[in-house]
């Protein structure tokens, strides 16, 4: 059973930065696409970013394009989400998820991912 553990969340002021990390319990990242999702209080979970198993494809929600960067270090079983120029609307619980989309491109569909971490809280103060 693949386990994912997120870390790096916290409280930051508007305009600040955080780097989230997602550690996989086994050497699966060579085969898995990884997605980052977030859920704000009272809202549905939404896709934020993804990176394909090869690392050759990434995608971002329009709301974070130009501010967030996803990367992976397969040798360390790690995926990162660098978040810059944070805004209060970025506040929420951030989850990483793994799935085998089996296509060249990753996507931000929740249904494409079947292993999820417990989440890490990100709070951006105004």
How are the elements arranged and paired?
Layout: E1 4-7, E2 10-13, E3 18-24, E4 33-39, E5 46-51, E6 58-60, E7 68-73, E8 78-83, E9 92-99, E10 115-116, E11 120-125
Parallel strand pairs: 2-11
Antiparallel strand pairs: 1-3, 3-8, 4-5, 4-9, 5-6, 7-8, 9-10, 9-11
Describe this structure in words.
There is one protein chain. The protein is mostly beta strands and 126 residues long. The chain has no helices and 11 strands. It has strands at 4-7, 10-13, 18-24, 33-39, 46-51, 58-60, 68-73, 78-83, 92-99, 115-116, 120-125. The strands form 2 sheets. Strands 2, 4, 5, 6, 9, 10 and 11 form a 7-stranded mixed sheet that branches. A 4-stranded antiparallel sheet has the order 1-3-8-7, with no helix packed on it. A hairpin with a 6-residue loop joins strand 4 and strand 5. The radius of gyration is 13 Å and the shape is globular. The relative contact order is 0.32. The mean pLDDT is 94.
């Amino acid at each position: 059973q693949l386990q994912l553990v997120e870390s790096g969340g916290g409280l930051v002021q508007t305009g600040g930065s955080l780097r989230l990390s997602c550690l996989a319990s086994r050497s699966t990242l060579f085969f898995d696409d990884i997605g980052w999702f977030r859920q704000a209080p009272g809202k549905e979970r939404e896709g934020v970013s993804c990176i394909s198993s090869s690392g050759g494809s990434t995608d971002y929600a329009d709301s974070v394009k130009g501010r967030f960067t996803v990367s992976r270090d397969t040798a360390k079983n790690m995926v990162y989400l660098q978040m810059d120029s944070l805004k209060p609307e970025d506040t929420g619980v951030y989850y990483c998820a793994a799935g085998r989309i089996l296509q060249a491109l990753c996507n931000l569909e929740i249904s494409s991912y079947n292993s999820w971490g417990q989440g890490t809280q990100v709070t951006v103060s105004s």
